[in-house]
Amino acid sequence: MVICLSLLLCAALFTHWLTIRKTRAVVRELEESVRMKRRLLLNEPSALLRRIGMEPLVSETNELIDQHRSYTDEVFGQSTRLDAMLGSTQEAVIIFNDQRVVEFLNESAKRLFQGNRALKGARLESVLRSSSLLDFLDGYREDHRITQQEISVDREGGVLWFEASCAEVRDVSAKNAVSTLLVLHDITRLKSLEMVRRDFVANVSHELRTPLTIIKGFAETLEEDHATLTAETRSRFIKKIVNNAKRLHVLVEDLLELSRLESKSDQVQPTEQSLLQLMDEILEDNRQRLDMNVQSMELDYDERVGEFAFDRFRIRQVFDNLIENAFRYAPDFTRLVLSVRYEDSQNMVHCCVADDGPGIPEKDVPHIFERFYRVDKGRSRENGGTGLGLSIIKHIVQQHGGSVSLETGEAQGTAIHFTLPYAQLAQSE
After folding, report:
1. Would you state the pLDDT for residue 428?
2. Which superfamily is assigned to 89-186 in CATH?
């Protein structure tokens, strides 16, 4: 009897020990499963789990893990979609926390500001050097109604302009954490165009005001003092009025021409033709202006340049303007050379109009193709120059797909170079 009880007690103790062992094993696997955030898959039969009381806990744990995985997948999907949406926008998007530490940048922001350094995790002040932006963010923190403002950012010696807007976003993964979404719309080009327009209007106003003032002054004098003026004086006044009216007419025509070239891309109408024939016509038309005793006009033409596509009227306009500049600003030249060369390496036609006149001072060279810029302002106005000729030339050549350059020096003459693509019409279309 005692032996039977002993055996039963041993069996009970062994069963209890085995249950404890199995329970501990299940708990360890359950702990590992929760830590790794994966479902718990046991080799033990359900009956054993029910017997040791672990089946409900395992079932609930697996359900929580499934919910967490579903939530994680959803959040990851939303984050991926958000990254894709923000990454594809042209605006620069930056998200930073309340300490102004950058948490996210889209591709546009990286292209503008990243360079060779990593910006995620850096302070916003080190990413964007802009006092106006910091003032904007301080104002937004105090008054959330301020949501949009123009700011400037210093970058590599230049200035970028943006239209900045921002909004607060709450981080769902951290309780009460607030970040700021900053969107920067690049308006640098618009600002540049606005400055050009402002300068253009100011220059046009100045250029128009001078001849108009002269015309008005002499006309009023003729009207008020007509009886007391001598015939010679009246004739001189009328000549002044006519000359300034002509000057005004030329200025308006050049302004309209420049406006047409800048506003439409279809002003150039290339046709396949011979540039040599056009050059012969230009030489013939201008030889009569030469002082044959001291001046010569020569053509240096590369025979490899056959027929190619260009706008005859516009290229004639380019050569006429350059030749007119030589007669107007270097009237004492002795040799004027028009050259045309074929450049094999770039498949371009290189054209040049060069004189041996006084040249252009070095300080004026960087500005020579700007609108209304004149080297000798007084002499240019006296000769009827508007300061728009070289700007018009530049636009015509660029619309052909070429470029313009200048080679000059005081007492060394002046050479204006420009290139044209050497393409047949079928290829250019």
Report:
1. 43
2. PAS domain (3.30.450.20)
